[in-house]
Specification:
52% helix, 11% strand, two-stranded antiparallel ribbon, 15 helices, Dehydroquinate synthase-like, alpha domain
């Protein structure tokens, strides 16, 4: 008798897949960390191609260039107007990178730059280094790029074999960035625990092609703990434009922990419903689109929606709503849109969130358009009730 765990001749059994964990090879974070860029990527080659937006490069290019020079690395070329990750734009920047004869790619900035730089590095078969100047999302560390149409509407996700090789977050630069960037990142990190739990309960395979390790599960859970304990302190530091231990914690939570958590821990309702609303045109992912709403703001609301759909305890949902309100994240449609949504568009979003390619189906809760629609309406009502309650509490007792 030979004990075999993978039985190919019984395809009706649940597939036996391994536990898989992915993360960057190097993660560096701290004030002026951009000055150490060459130290952590000099071994990748002698010629680097830089991709960034005007603001990010203005803040970090001098530090990066000096550090690369000290490590014996030449800046082979610079794309200084990276804006939107479309096939046409990526193709243009890819040709410039090829012409530079670079050995590796460095992205400087936030989400859009990370998407573009990842595509270019992936097409070249080269390593990617990300120098983060904001902590607004979890994309610096991952192997996923969001691809847009030329009109800034969502087109598809591209998944590459390797995560970012080195992620370098300059917390001094992050502390000087607009506060809403940090808050948006907190919204994106808010969902990680809840989506991981839904995905694990369903025994779904994660984006990295296996079941979550306990390492990724523990990281996903800790995201929520860090946000609740240190979120408001981090925002205060960001408003004061200084670096504190609390701000460092939240930068790491938004960037490293959330990045590992969503990729190796699992996705479910929060992102699935978000993607349905994007597909229906109710919101747009890219900031240049008319219907744009920051990703983290939308994820805040759709995470609460997921919790309603899962029938989580009222106390747990109330805690999530109260925390989101305390840091300035959306809990109602009015927060997101400035008004109530068109019911037909909302229904279309509920239907699109249930399509076969949506991660909503990775959770353990049975889904249908009616259940998603009802959960969104209920989450919106709970958000309004919390706001009304807080208004009366602030007004104080009346005679």
């Amino acid at each position: 008798m030979v004990l075999t765990y993978r039985i190919e001749e019984m395809p009706w059994l649940k597939p036996q897949v391994p536990l898989v964990f992915k993360c960057p090879a190097i993660y560096v974070q701290g004030p002026d960390a951009s000055k150490d860029t060459g130290k952590y990527c000099g071994h990748l080659g002698k010629r680097a191609f830089l991709i960034g937006g005007p603001t990010a490069l203005k803040k970090a290019k001098e530090n990066i260039s000096a550090s690369l020079a000290a490590a014996g690395v030449e800046v082979a070329g610079v794309e200084g107007n990276a804006h939107i990750c479309t096939d046409n734009e990526n193709g243009r920047i890819l040709e410039a990178a090829k012409a530079s004869e670079c050995d590796f790619v460095i992205g400087v900035g936030g989400g859009s730059v990370a998407d573009i730089a990842r595509v270019v590095a992936g097409k070249l078969g080269q390593s990617l280094v990300m120098v983060g100047t904001v902590a607004s999302m979890a994309g610096h560390t991952s192997a996923l790029s969001v691809i847009y149409n030329d009109d800034a509407t969502w087109k598809r996700y591209d998944l590459f074999p390797e995560d970012t090789h080195a992620v370098i977050i300059d917390s001094k630069i992050v502390s000087e960035a607009p506060v809403d960037q940090l808050v948006n990142g907190m919204g994106d990190a808010m969902c990680i625990k809840f989506e991981m739990e839904a995905s694990k309960k369903a025994e779904a395979v994660t984006l990295v092609g296996g079941y979550p390790t306990w390492t990724s599960i523990l990281i996903a859970r800790e995201c929520w703990n860090q946000l609740r304990q240190f979120g408001t302190q981090a925002i205060a530091a960001n408003k004061a434009k200084v670096v504190t231990p609390a701000l460092e914690r939240i930068i790491e939570t938004n960037t490293l922990m959330a990045g590992v958590g969503f990729e190796s821990g699992g996705l479910a309702g929060g992102h699935g419903i978000h993607d349905g609303l994007v597909g229906a045109g109710l919101i747009a992912l890219h900031k240049s689109a008319k219907a744009h709403k920051p990703h983290g703001q939308v994820i805040s609301f759709t995470t609460i929606t997921q919790m309603v759909m899962e029938d989580r305890p009222a106390e747990e949902i109330a805690e999530a709503i109260a925390w989101a309100e305390s840091v300035g994240l959306a809990t109602t449609f009015k927060d997101l849109l400035g008004k109530d949504p068109d019911e037909d568009v909302l229904w279309d979003g509920a239907k699109k969130s249930c399509m076969r390619d949506k991660v909503l189906l990775w959770g353990a809760t049975p889904v249908s358009p009616a259940r998603v629609y009802s959960a969104m309406k209920t989450a919106d009502q709970l958000g309004h009730e919390y706001k009304e309650k807080r208004k009366w509490e602030k007004a104080g007792p009346h005679k």
